[in-house]
Amino acid sequence: MRREHRFSLRHLPATLDDELTTRQRLRLQAHADDCPECGRCCATFCSFAAFSSAWGVAPER
User: Fold this and answer.
1) How far apart are CA 55 and CA 53, in angstroms?
2) What whole-number percentage of the chain has pLDDT above 90?
3) How much is the pTM?
4) Which of 4, 30, 38, 54 is the most buried (most CB within 10 A)?
5) From CA 29, how far away is CA 46, in angstroms rounded?
6) In sequence order, what DSSP letters do the residues of the chain get, joined into one string?
7) d(Cα 35, Cα 40) in Å, to the nearest integer?
């Protein structure tokens, strides 16, 4: 569980830039579904992504 927790927190910012592979994204989502802390972090990042998209703010590449 700790390994998945570290993986999720380390890779969560990459979700904003759509930089995760499908396998990484699924791994992160599976952990977030089971971990309240990571679940809250994912929800926050998703909210931010939706907000920035609605305002036309694109991530820098």
Assistant:
1) 5
2) 20
3) 0.70
4) 38
5) 12
6) -HHHHHHHHHHGGGGTTT-S-HHHHHHHHHHHHH-HHHHHHHHHHHHHHHHHHHTT-PPP-
7) 9
